[in-house]
Amino acid sequence: MAAKYIPLTGAESAAYAMKQINPDVLAAYPITPQTPIVMKFSEYVANGEVDTVSITVESEHSAMSATVGAAAAGARAMTATAANGLALMWEIVYIAASTRLPIVMGIVNRALSGPINIHGDHSDTMGARDAGWIQVYSENNQEVYDNYFMALRIAENEDVLLPVMVCQDGFITSHSVENVMPAPDQVVKEFIGKKKFKGLLTAEKPFTIGPLDLQDYYFEHKKQQHEAMKKVFPVIEAIQKEFAEKFGRKYDVIEEYRTEDADIVIMGMSSVMGTVKEVIDAAREKGIKVGAVKPRFFRPFPGEYLKKILSKFKAVGILDRSDSFGSLPPLFTETAAVFYTSSTKPLVKSYIHGLGGRDTTVKLLEKVVTDLQKLSETGEGNFTSEYLGVRE
Amino acid sequence: MKKSSIEINKHPIDKYLRRDRMPHIWCPGCGLGMDITAFIEGTKQANIDMNNMQIVSGIGCTGRISGYIKLDAYHTTHGRAIPFASGLKLANRNLTVVVFSGDGDLFAIGGNHLIHAARRNVDLTVICVNNFIYGMTGGQTAPTTPVGAFSSTAPYGNFEKPFNLVGVAASAGASYVARWTSLHTKRLANSIAKALSNKGFSFIEIVSPCPTVFGRKNNRSDALGLINELRDRSRIDNSANPTEIPITNYGEIVIGDFLNEPRPCFSESFEEGIKKTKERIEK
């Protein structure tokens, strides 16, 4: 049977993937713009299309706690949230990672208050970047769908055993309909396989999770989390390769777009990269040698990959959909740090864009292209940061 | 621009509203308009100085009240209205502090705060607008959704036992407890006046119609029909024991002024405790 596209929103793409994963337990609490994921998934539960036990708990703090509990007991446990929901989960987000539980959590990126704003930016997950989770960012609905399966495999890999956040942009992705090509259930089933992780509380031998760990061993345990993160990229590469074979769609840790002969590139994550590609196509028509670079992962940080790729270009504009008040934004800072010891490095400029869901338009990105041309010619504005599309 | 031929009269409570924030986001047929009017009436009745009053709300449809009433107001995060309000009250005991929020906000994500503020008898008036569902986020099962009612997370009916809000508040230690519907505007206003005058934790549940979300999912999307339903289903019984009157999907809704048992509020108990300690030290 020929594969068929079906129209799905980003949230429905996530729910569809979760249905095919068929987790044992789902615990969640409503928060805009995550709600359509769990609403759609609840339908699958109610219809008996999945074997999942789902519980609509009383807060996100409880959602992550229940997910951790279920994972500790050996279940494939999932949840989904956004912004303030992620913030309310905070302490258990760290605990999920430090107890090495392979949880997959759907994140619909949304601005973290205040004032209250329900639209998309990355301030929520960027705040959680040091929680010990793997973070994968999705540009479009197809990527959302595909990332869930790869995330599950990465999380459950025996060398990794770390939780993963699968991020998509609030409303821009989560509520927009696109054609998505789902894989047949059988293909998903074969790809994700039976879970090898048996849980920590298996009743086979007494085991205590999370007891007091002071100056004696805490430091060693933290180092182990770091060591686990170091093993992630080889695992991702192998899983992406296997995914391409089974699903026919190829992903890389860093996606490059029209970079072969590019002098300047725009780099960023998630949905804005769709607009960036449009802008690049138009600029290419005019003969401007511009390309795009899209890191799919922010944790672990793909520094070595970026070092190799970005050193080819004269100038790089780095788009951050979050701010770090009193410093430079995270994607820019970490990328710049990679080049500290390099003799060949591009000129760099930071752009903070789209906070609180503000639209990053073609016009704004055309300005970035013009900026970068100037930067590459004159070096003017190197290592500076500006707000893209803010009213002064 | 051509002027509208329709003469727009002022609403009697206009001066208490932020007209510049209108139109509001609430749906046609929502009970919140009636609830606000009753609140303003109750405040007038209790002779409360509006300049000395603070409104605190959480997240959700009801949570938006803090942006529409022209008083000092704090729109807090989901579930945290009561601890914010407690802080306000402790910092300035002369303030009249009102928490105006929904069932999901006060009893799910903020449930823990409610029972502890009631236990301590913090001098707050908590008005809980109960529409039986998470309205703003799209109609998910809430801790108030009746067994058998439909929601977007229970498409074939909810099977979880809901909270009886007045029962929870009374059991936790609230010193004033009442339940009315949005339809019972006069009685509700009277209750709000009493609650505001009670020096302690006062709790009022307002059973409020939500035709757009709860109604639509439960074959009761006609706004007027829902108002009629509230009239037909409710029975006033001021002597009812609040712990014994849970609300079901179609059964009777017992309403009334159930409990009014003033006891020392948190600040008074605190001062008394400090006073005793000082006396002991001085001895």
Layout of helices and strands:
The complex is a heterodimer of chains A (392) and B (283).
Chain A: E1 6-9, H1 10-21, E2 25-28, H2 35-46, E3 53-56, H3 60-72, E4 77-81, H4 83-98, E5 104-109, H5 123-127, E6 134-137, H6 141-156, E7 164-169, E8 177-180, H7 185-192, H8 218-230, H9 232-247, E9 254-257, E10 264-267, H10 272-285, E11 290-295, E12 297-299, H11 303-310, E13 315-320, H12 330-338, E14 347-353, H13 362-378, E15 384-388
Parallel strand pairs in A: 2-3, 2-4, 4-5, 5-7, 6-7, 10-11, 10-13, 13-14, 14-15
Antiparallel strand pairs in A: 1-8, 6-12, 9-11
Helix pairs in contact in A: 1-2, 1-6, 3-4, 10-13
Chain B: H1 32-45, E1 53-57, H2 65-68, E2 72-75, H3 81-91, E3 96-102, H4 103-109, H5 111-120, E4 125-130, H6 165-172, E5 176-181, H7 185-197, E6 202-207, H8 211-217, H9 223-233, E7 234-236, E8 253-260, H10 266-282
Parallel strand pairs in B: 1-2, 1-3, 3-4, 4-6, 5-6, 7-8
Antiparallel strand pairs in B: 5-8
Helix pairs in contact in B: 1-7, 4-5, 5-6
Q: Mind explaining what this structure looks like?
A:
- Chain A has 13 helices and 15 strands.
- Chain A has 392 residues and is of the alpha/beta class.
- Chain A folds into two domains: 6-197 and 211-247, Thiamin diphosphate (ThDP)-binding fold, Pyr/PP domains (Rossmann fold, 3-Layer(aba) Sandwich); 257-387, Rossmann fold.
- In chain A, the strands form three sheets. In chain A, strands 3-2-4-5-7-6-12 form a seven-stranded mixed sheet, with helices on both faces. A six-stranded mixed sheet of chain A has the order 9-11-10-13-14-15, with helices on both faces. A two-stranded antiparallel ribbon of chain A has the order 1-8.
- In chain A, α2 (35-46) links the parallel β2 and β3 (53-56).
- The longest helix of chain A has 17 residues, at 362-378.
- Chain A is globular.
- Chain B is globular, with a radius of gyration of 19 Å.
- The model of chain B has no long low-confidence stretch (mean pLDDT 95).
- Chain B has ten helices and eight strands.
- Chain B has 283 residues and is an alpha/beta fold.
- Helices cover 36% and strands 16% of the residues of chain B.
- Chain A binds chain B through residues 29-32, 35-36, 38-39, 42-43, 46-47, 54, 56, 58-60, 84, 88, 113-116, and chain B through 59, 75, 77-79, 108-109, 111, 134, 136-138, 140-141, 143, 152-156.
